[in-house]
Amino acid sequence: RSGYLAAPGTYRARMEVWQSETRSVLGEQVFTVKPLDISDETAIDGVRIELAEFQAKTAELVRSVSGTVRNVEEIRGRIASLEKALFNTSKAMPDHHKELRQLSDSLYTIEVKLTGDETISSRFELTPWSINERVNSIVFGHWASLSPVTETHKQAYEIAKAEFDLLRRDFLRLKEQLQAFEVSVDGIGAPWTPGRLPEMQQ
What we know:
Elements: E1 9-19, E2 22-33, H1 45-87, H2 94-115, H3 118-121, H4 131-142, H5 151-186
Antiparallel strand pairs: 1-2
Helix pairs in contact: 1-2, 1-4, 1-5, 2-5, 4-5
């Protein structure tokens, strides 16, 4: 995904080469980005400032949402590894399996809110917009634009931000619960799984 358009101003580009921990500057170029005053609206400084601020704000939301998507994928892998490990743990009790299923179900709920329900969309059924989809609609809708920020994009941002704040809170709580579960299964001698450093049993 490319970034949003650079704001008008003076910039500096430098080419460097790193070799054996030594940095050499090959060249430097100063250049100016000029605004395209293609309409009366885009020529207004206030419009440019608002656009730049909104794009910077949405870029931060994109960074946070994208990072959370990757983190959710990592947690899904850890849970899958724990499921296999429990079947190879002689001291594992039904309650261990039940607790892990509950963690998996909670993660699935977060995944659906974050990236959508693939089981429904794969059947070409309509699904509510996920947080990631809503954020992408903002990015693709205005990052390459010089026009003023639309009310639709402003509302989309507010909705996505509010939903993401709640989801992030739930996800952090789930991660804490998973870490506590990993400690408990380590105590019954479960095999190593990603994200765990097994303690030596005395």
